[in-house]
Amino acid sequence: MARRYDSRTTIFSPEGRLYQIEYAMxxxxxxGTVLGVLxxxxxxxxxxxxxxxxxxxxxxxxxxxxxxxGEKIYLLNDNVIGGVAGLTAxxxxxxxxxxxxxxxxxxxxxxxxxVELLAQRLCNLKQGYTQFGGLRPFGVSLLYAGYDPHYxxxxxxxxxxxxxxxxxATCIGANNGTAQSLxxxxxxxxxxxxxxxxxxxxxxxxxxxxxxxxSEKLEFAVLTLDETTKRPKAKIYKPSEIDALLAxxxxxxxxxxxEMKAA
Amino acid sequence: xxxxxxxxxSVIAMVGKDCVAIASDLRLGNQALGLSSNFQRxxxxxxxxxxGLPGLGTDVHTLWEKFRFRVNMYTIKEEREIEPETFAxxxxxxxxxxxxxxxxxxxxxxxxxxxxxxxxxxxIAATDLIGCLNFAKDFVVAGTASSKLFGMAEGLWEPDxxxxxxFETISQALMNAVDxxxxxxxxxxxxxxxxxxxxxxxxxxxxx
Lengths: 263, 208
Fold this sequence. Notes:
The complex is a heterodimer of chains A (263) and B (208). With 263 residues, chain A is an alpha+beta fold. Chain A has helices at residues 19-28, 59-62, 88-109, 115-131, 176-186, 193-207, 239-248, 256-262; strands spanning 34-39, 42-48, 73-77, 80-86, 140-148, 152-158, 164-166, 169-172, 218-225, 232-236. Chain A has a five-stranded antiparallel β-sheet. In chain A, a hairpin with a 5-residue loop joins β6 (152-158) and β7 (164-166). Residues 257-263 of chain A have low confidence and may be disordered. Helices cover 30% and strands 29% of the residues of chain B. In chain B, α3 runs antiparallel to α4. The A-B interface holds A 64-66, 75, 77, 96, 99-100, 103-104, 106-107, 110 and B 65-66, 68-69, 72-73, 76-77, 79-80. Chain B: This is 20S proteasome subunit beta 3. Chain B: It comes from Pluteus cervinus. Chain B: Keywords: Proteasome.
C-alpha cells in the first residue's frame, strides 16, 4: 500500500515526511515563474503568464483597474504587492484572505500592516492545513514585495508548508533553480530600482520557456516610495506599459515579419 | 438626556449645478460643556465622495474606520472607485447590521456620480441611525441643529447654484442654524466638490 501515507495531509510517512506538502511544492515548480528583486529604493516583481491565447478576452486588462491581468500579480494592500505561483483558484482565496487581513490591521491599529506580519498571517493559515487538514494544503507559493517604516523595503517568500523567509532576490515556479543561480551571480547589494528592473527582465527572458518576451506573457510590478508623500507607491504595469518598458530595455521581441522583409 | 445629543454637532449637504457641498460645525461637547472647537466629522471617502457623521463622538471614529475598511475592500476587489449611490447603500447596510444596538450616527453623504457620457451628476443622501436612506434632490440635514437647518435650507436653497454661490448658501444656512443650537457651532468646515477640484474652507463662528 504505497498510497497509505499519501491521501491525508496530517499523517507522517514512516520516513517522517508529509507527502501532500511535497506534492503541493511539486505542483508549484511547474507553475509560471514569479521573480522578485529587492533594491535599495524599491522592490521589483515579474511573473510569467501561462493562460494565453488569441481567443482569451483581455479587454478588461487593457484599461481601467490598477494594472495587471489578475493572473499572477495582485495588490494586497497599499504597501504590499503579491506574486503567486501555483493553483490559481487557491491563490484567489489566499489573496482575498491577505487583503482582509491587511484591512483588519488597518482597522485595529490605524496603520498599514507590516510586510512580515502579513506574511505570517498567511503562513498561519497555510500551516493549519498541514496539521488539521483532512483535505489538502494550499497549492500556492507567494512572493510579498512590500514596504513598512520598520524595515523599509522587503521581499518575502512563503510556501505551502507555511514556511516563510526574507530574500534579496528570489524566484518561485518553473525553472526557479536556473533563475536563482542567475540572480546569485548578478545581484549587487546596493542595487537601485532602475537596475533591478533590468536584472529582473533579463533573468525572466533567460528562464522563460517562450523565446519571445512581450506583454501577453509577462506581468510586471514595482513598489517604490512616493517622493512627495513618502508613502509606498505600488505600480502594476498595464500591457502597453510592459511593452514600452521591454522596448526601452532592448528586450522587445523581434517581429519576425520585419526581419524577413529586411533579409 | 438623549445619547444623540450628548456630544452635539450638525451636518448639511446641498446640490448645486454640477457640484455638491457638504458642511459641518466643529464643536465636540459634553452636554452643555464645550470640549473641542476642531472636531472633524466629515471624511473623504474617494476623490469625489465625502461623508459626514453627526452623532455620538466615539461612534464618529469607529464608524468611519469601518467604512474605510469596507470601501478599501470594495476598491481593491472591484479595481475601481466606489460610486456615491453604491456607497450610500454600503452605509445603509452597515448601519442596519446593528439594527437592535445601533451606532448613534446619522450619516450624510455628498458626492459626484459618473455619467455614461463622461460627465458628473451631483448626489446627496442621508440616513437615520439604522440606515433608512433618504435620497434628496435639493438638500439633506442631520444632527442636533437639524430642525433649524431645515428652516434655513428651505429659505436659502435654490436650484442650479454655481460652486461659489452654493458655498455662500450652505455656509449661511449652517452658520445661522448652529447659532440657534446650543450643542452645535464653534466654527464650521465647508467642502465644495466640483468635477476637477474640491474646495475646503474653515469658517469662524460665534464662541458662545
